[in-house]
Amino acid sequence: MVTPGIDNIREYEHWLQGKRVGLLTNITGRDSKNYSTIDVLEELCGLTALFAPEHGVRGDVGAGEAVDAYTDAATGLKVYSLYGGSGKHLSQEMLDTFDVLVYDIQDIGVRFFTYISSLHNALTDCAEAGKTLIILDRPNPLGGRVVEGGVLDPAYSSFVGCYPLAIRYGLTSGEAARMMNEEEKLGCDLKIVPCRGWKRNSLFCDWGRVWPAPSPALMTFETTLLYSGLCLVEGTNLSEGRGTAAPFRIIGADYVHAEELMEAFNREELPGVTSTPVWFTPAVSKHQGKKCGGILLHVTDWDKIRPVTVGVTLLDVIRKLYPKAYDTLPPVREGGRPMMALLSGSDVLLGSWDRKEVLAKWDQESRDFAERKQQYHLYE
Fold first, then answer.
1. Above 70 in pLDDT, residue 44?
2. Could you give the CA distance from residue 365 to residue 176 in angstroms, rounded to a whole number?
3. Contact yes or no for 369/151 (Cβ under 8 A)
4. Helix pair angle (307-321, 221-230), 10° resolution
5. What is the rounded distance in angstroms from the CA atom of residue 223 to the CA atom of residue 210?
6. CA–CA dist 296, 314 (Å, integer)
7. Which tens digit of pLDDT belongs to each residue from 163-183?
8. How confident is the model at residue 20 (pLDDT cuts 50, 70, 90)?
9. Checking DSSP bridges between strand 49-52 and strand 78-81, what pairing results, if any?
10. Among 206, 4, 210, 247, CA closest to 106
């Protein structure tokens, strides 16, 4: 049976005794009986403050929506946002509320998912302040063996790519924290409560558990697996399906013909995936209120699919079908990098590019990263 670190916290409660304890968590921070980590730690040792990543501590904040400090209605604890207008680091006011910061979030093992950036910031801030960081580790739902995509070029660092990781990096949060702490020589007093029963070759669908929905757009494991490659669509003028019933499975635009795209994509015969045509009208985000053509992606083999290859291939197919309409988005801020560069971690998908060359480059980088990360593994 696969169990998260919070299930084992009583074996390590001496790390919390006599300490002021803060908790960085969200709606996924729950034990195997579905009790909130907030409630478990409140009963075990008491909490002094809560800290929220993107989407808030209770999961009720939309993607990219910034919030500031507020009071948690259920506990009366102050909640400090680490995705707010005042910044994404722990301020001195926040640091003064705890001796030990506990981290419990179900991440998905994808570089551009912002929880890993919040963890990196917590590591650096706790190290500088001499605070202890305890990670209640959780299995990686995308497994720990398959690594995909290019490694971030530090010149393109951002909150959707904070560290030189492959796109799909094959580490748990605890393992990633070990890597960042040791490679950057941060010197953080890092402690990890391990999860149990997880093997590196197992995906979430092998665990026999209910999906925890780590963000409002990732309501199923199938969506999350595809997101690890299809998030690249967010850097283009295509709809990634936000405002539909199937974000990151529905991809299209008002200039796309559904059946034409389906036929072109399916001709690629990528392993583990197929598509059907779909017409849709996004309720929010890109192409809001406009009738769009596109495809609905279906995972046919959990083990064989390589979502990053799917994402790059689909972008290549669409830009060749609709060369006058397809485009990448400009930077969000004046003088900034285009979103495609931030998501991909380099400039290889901007301007003119060759799919085979990009995938070959990324394949070599992912192989090198897979070797580099092995020394930080906590699980077989």
1. yes
2. 17
3. yes
4. 60
5. 14
6. 12
7. 999 999 999 999 999 999 999
8. very high
9. parallel
10. 4
